């Protein structure tokens, strides 16, 4: 038992050390981002290109997912409201759910899976093939050109995609309501947005920007730490997706709690 206990303590101690080292390296990586983002050159062309990669190429998936979410959530909510004779509240319920939570969360998770894995694999491949070192030899700051541009692109485009996902989701909800109650689009929107305030829209955009930053910085971090050839590239892509989704859910809980506090103060 003594030997087993010693082995257990060693494993736990090693895990704690690795966790602490990972947190330290991650914090240093984020700190370097904020240091580099304010320094020229700004690589605007590369930022625009990355915005195109993150935003435009993700639109079909966001469109399909947002539309299905609106339709399914409306179908699932209708029987519960009908039991209390409150189907007139359906547009308000769907709008609140989409704007406050579903649209930012769904968009961020899609971007974590599609964009995060892509960035992690791309930078991981560049790392193991020594292209990052070649950029340093060519007097190009690889952190500035690779990390800052991609993280800014995800931070800017995830909020835009979130608003688009919300609009598409509301359209899907309207299609379901229209098929059951023959409601007009004007009455649907009026009823839905009557319960939405500036804090709801503002917190949704801020939340999406935080999610986008997390996806970009985590994918870049794991991509630039890739080792061991093609296997390392695969591990970097997988780690980017898993860690991004985990952080997104943690941030969701924290931001929701902050919103509750703000509403408690009447903001």
Distance between the termini: 58 Å
* Record field, number of beta strands: 0
Radius of gyration: 22 Å
The secondary structure category is: mainly alpha
Give the fraction of residues assigned to helices: over 70%
The biggest sheet, with number of strands, parallel, antiparallel or mixed sense and barrel status, is:
none
What share of residues are in beta strands?
Answer: under 5%
The total of helices stands at 9
Number of spatially distinct domains: 2
Task: Note the run of SSEs as H and E.
Answer: HHHHHHHHH
Give the rounded overall mean pLDDT. 88
Shape by Cα distribution: elongated
The stretches of 5 or more residues where confidence is low (pLDDT under 50) are: none
Polypeptide structure, described:
Helices cover 86% and strands 0% of the residues. With 267 residues, it is mainly alpha-helical. The chain has two domains: 1-36; 43-264, no CATH class. The longest helix has 40 residues, at 142-181.
Which tags fit this structure?
mainly alpha; 2 domains
Tell me the layout of helices and strands:
Blueprint: H1 2-36, H2 44-55, H3 59-82, H4 90-128, H5 131-137, H6 142-181, H7 185-193, H8 198-224, H9 229-264
Helix pairs in contact: 2-6, 3-4, 3-6, 4-6, 4-7, 4-8, 4-9, 6-8, 8-9
In short:
The chain is an all-alpha fold and 267 residues long.
